[in-house]
Amino acid sequence: MSRYNHQIDRRYNQQYSVNKKPYFVVTCIALVIMIILLTCAIIVTRNEYKESQTLLADSSSEPVIENSSVADVSSSVSETSALESEASTSSTTASKAESKSEVSSNSSSDSKFIKVIENYSVYNFVGQTGDWRLRLANRLNKIDDYTPPTKYIGSKYCRNNDNYKIDERVYDDLIAMMDAAAEDGVKLIVVSAYRSYERQTNNYNNKVNYYINKGYSRKDAENKASTIIAIPGTSDHNLGLAIDFNYLEEKYENRPELVWLREHAEEYGFVMRYKKEKGNYTGIIYEPWHYRYVGKEHAKKMNQLNMCLEEYVEYLLKNS
After folding, report:
1. Catalytic residue (one of 62, 266, 287, 311)
2. Residue 17 confidence (pLDDT)
3. Residue pLDDT, tens place only, 64-77
4. Domain check: are 134 and 10 in the same one?
5. Is the separation of the CB atoms in 243 and 190 below 8 Å?
6. CATH number of the domain residue 150 falls in
7. Where are the alpha helices (DSSP H) in 214-269?
8. Is 168 a known active-site residue?
9. Which of 70, 203, 266, 276 has the fewest CB atoms within 10 Å distance of its CB?
10. pTM of the predicted model over 0.85
11. Which residues in 143-223 belong to E strands, given as ranges?
């Protein structure tokens, strides 16, 4: 009886083993598929995040334009030239700025501001010092196809191990500043740096085409695009002297990293390029994350005088 039961158990176990094999194989295949799908989802999510951050970085340092129909703000080279020509006739331009500008303290018969965008003005100054550290890049000082000597910053200093470029003459001071911050327990991360003229042109043209496909006329598409992507040659990043750090939103202005920069950037030759109270000089929104290299002596002097770069360049030219 015992032997008979043993044979039955063995046949049962064999049958059970045969029956469960397909389920085991199916389970393994399902697990593999789930792992593959999960991996793909993670990769797609990460790429979408990087693309969104890149868009934020590419659209930083942009003009403050609340309404794209307000004015055609230098949306092409010819329009920029026309704007510069208008700037040269100071009396006519000043009267226009006075009638429209909301900055009453600076609006007078000899105002240095010209009205180009709703609620904001741009400092009516065209000029350069010849010092590469102080070179202006804005709507009245367009740099066109400029290529600085560049060097990779290093992936360990950049977001998501990307590797951005900077003007090679800035490299030593930039790395010294980031290392000093690390010693103070603050991790500075580069989220945007040098942008080539070609990249800026592609970004701008792609945005123009996007709005054309949405039904905008070319002129309206260019106006709309310029509120998001800087017109090529007018971005501080085209010079290779600007860095965006850590955060690209004003609400993070009091995070330790941005506080540290406000307190120490000057020591390494950097200044906050677009301060809150200087929007009517630069035409750019407040960007507590955007720092510009000007050299140690200039950074100290600019902060002492409480001047933005537009003011400081004119100050130097007048006193040279």
Report:
1. 287
2. 53
3. 433 333 233 333 33
4. no
5. yes
6. 3.30.1380.10
7. 218-226, 256-264
8. no
9. 276
10. no
11. 150-152, 165-167, 190-192
